[in-house]
Amino acid sequence: MIAISDAIGRLAAALGGGPAAKLAASALIEADALGLSRFGITMLDEWTVDAGPVPTNECRQAISWLDCASCFAPLAVAGATLDLTEAARQFGIAAVFLRGVRGFGRLAPFVRHLADASLVGIAGAEGPPFVAAHGGTRPVIGTNPFALAMGQGTDRVVIDVASSTATMADIRNARVSDTPLPDGIALDDEGLPTRIAADVAALLPRGGQIGSLLGLVVELMAGVAGGGRGNPQARGVFILAIDPARAEERVDWQAKLAGLKSDWMDAGGHWPRGGNVPPEAVLDGVFAQRFDAYLARMTSQTGR
What φ, ψ does residue 191 adopt, rounded to 5°? Predict the structure, then answer.
């Protein structure tokens, strides 16, 4: 067993220490705590001691484009999020576009960090084509997650949703276990629905046209405007931060957010929270063994 707070501290130290390392470590550990191991410390398989330095928005511009091809992706996204926090406070609105980003996990922890800083955080990540367009038969976009976070405390909302119901990792796991897929999530190479994981050539968009258009929005922002499109080994990411306090007294956005939450829940809706876990939570012994093995490998490479 290992406490989440202890795991975050140890991993942050192994990643070099500092705020970006702590945010990256927190995001990875949280994913494992939520049972989403493919977005957790498994990402450390991509870590190498000779990874390039995390690029920064040194000129503190409102909009920046950063090449992260040589970086450990969770650190790159964390560093960009921290830079964006300061830029949004300075300019009222700021955006960063990252390209060459490899697997980095979930978007929710990064937009939640922006919300904790009293900002509105919006982010998306495009990737290699796995998902067909609505009405299409061949993959054209990635699973293209989109996330938004706003507010603090009990009113805070964190949305993190992908363009497809399944991921390619789900398909690979189903292939290994020879498990039939649910209906309506995949197509074979002839464009026909399939439940056989080995025959999957494309995933179907979540909710039909809605998931298709959501994925297209992310592709336009992260892939086209951000320059990430066309890299089969990596992805483009965009992160946008808005400071709603710039509205001053003209818009009491916190009261409006609380009112929306009340209306939403009174109508029977679920208020999305983004899946964060309490710091006093613990992870089991199986995770602890995997975690120790990753830290041992990192330590052996750095000599620390």
Answer: 80, 20
